[in-house]
């Protein structure tokens, strides 16, 4: 889709798009929730690329969409199959989930909480070249394990988890660890840029 179509579907062109990626249980949702909390929901909206995917997958398979969207163990039962189901859809139309996920976004700052693939980044770079910034959230394996991560072949060694491990020049890398500087300290430059972009 070209940028005029993207504009039409989102009504207002965003001033800044912060695209977060990171391994399972690195804390992408946790960190992006902090950003929304600090900036306020009138300034900042979370875009989850997996939201329309999970919704459509739940509908097609008669599953509980709310549980699939939560951070509990339910989604792990279906993750591998959701990945291949979503990849088949992306193969036909790489921007499919990006378009759906951003459709209702109206705030000046978008926080995309779950980029996993170069094709997703390419869609944002193509449609919003000036506004797009990439952020990586990192946590040690032992920390992710404490948060419930269990290595799963076919998931943790596949594109869904590794597609952005290399080849992306991240604007910021956030260490989500108890012994790292506080999240507020690490997020300060991002929050400042977002506030400036939103004119606050
Ligand atoms: N800095 C943190 N302090 C406390 N709990 C955290 C922190 N980061 C993540 N968590 C917890 O770890 C779990 C996984 O985090 P989540 O944000 O869902 O990871 P991801 O979205 O990367 O899979 C959640 O229960 C979350 O509340
Ligand atoms: C099928 C998925 O969209 C599921 C993503 O679910 P979440 O974004 O909830 O995952 P984590 O927060 O990393 O635990 C993955 C994909 O490859 O599209």
Automatic annotation (TrEMBL):
Cellular compartments per GO CC: cytosol
Subcellular compartments: Cytoplasm, Cytosol
Primary localization class, coarse: cytoplasm
Protein keywords: ATP-binding, Cholesterol biosynthesis, Cholesterol metabolism, Cytoplasm, Kinase, Lipid biosynthesis, Lipid metabolism, Nucleotide-binding, Steroid biosynthesis, Steroid metabolism, Sterol biosynthesis, Sterol metabolism, Transferase
Superkingdom: Eukaryota
UniProt binding sites for substrate: 176
GO biological process: cholesterol biosynthetic process; isopentenyl diphosphate biosynthetic process, mevalonate pathway
EC number(s) per entry: 2.7.4.2
Keyword Nucleotide-binding: yes
Single GO term (MF): ATP binding
Keyword Kinase included in the entry's annotation: yes
Pathway note: Isoprenoid biosynthesis; isopentenyl diphosphate biosynthesis via mevalonate pathway; isopentenyl diphosphate from (R)-mevalonate: step 2/3
Amino acids binding ATP: 23-29, 147, 186
EC top class, as a word: transferase
InterPro entries: P-loop_NTPase, Pmev_kin_anim
Catalysed reactions, semicolon-separated: (R)-5-phosphomevalonate + ATP = (R)-5-diphosphomevalonate + ADP
Function statement: Catalyzes the reversible ATP-dependent phosphorylation of mevalonate 5-phosphate to produce mevalonate diphosphate and ADP, a key step in the mevalonic acid mediated biosynthesis of isopentenyl diphosphate and other polyisoprenoid metabolites.
PANTHER family in the cross-refs: PHOSPHOMEVALONATE KINASE (PTHR13101)
NCBIfam families linked to this entry: Pmev_kin_anim (TIGR01223)
Name assigned to this protein: Phosphomevalonate kinase
UniProt source species: Hippocampus comes (Tiger tail seahorse)
């Amino acid at each position: 889709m070209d940028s005029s179509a993207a504009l039409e579907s989102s009504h207002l062109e965003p001033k800044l798009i912060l695209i977060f990626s990171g391994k399972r249980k690195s804390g992408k949702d946790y960190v992006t929730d902090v950003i929304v909390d600090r900036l306020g929901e009138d300034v900042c909206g979370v875009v989850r690329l997996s939201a329309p995917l999970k919704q459509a997958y739940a509908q097609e398979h008669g599953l509980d969409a709310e549980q699939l969207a939560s951070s509990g163990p339910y989604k792990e039962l279906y993750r591998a199959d959701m990945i291949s189901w979503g990849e088949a859809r992306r193969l036909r139309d790489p921007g499919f989930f990006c378009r759906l996920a951003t459709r209702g976004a109206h705030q000046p700052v978008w926080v995309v909480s779950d980029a996993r693939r170069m094709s997703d980044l390419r869609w944002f770079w193509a449609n919003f070249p000036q506004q797009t910034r990439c952020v990586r959230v990192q946590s040690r394996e032992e920390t992710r394990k404490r948060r419930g991560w269990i290595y799963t072949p076919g998931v943790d060694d596949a594109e869904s988890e590794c597609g952005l491990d290399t080849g992306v020049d991240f604007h910021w890398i956030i260490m989500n660890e108890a012994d790292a500087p506080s999240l507020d300290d690490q997020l300060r430059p991002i929050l400042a840029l977002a506030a400036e972009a939103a004119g606050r």
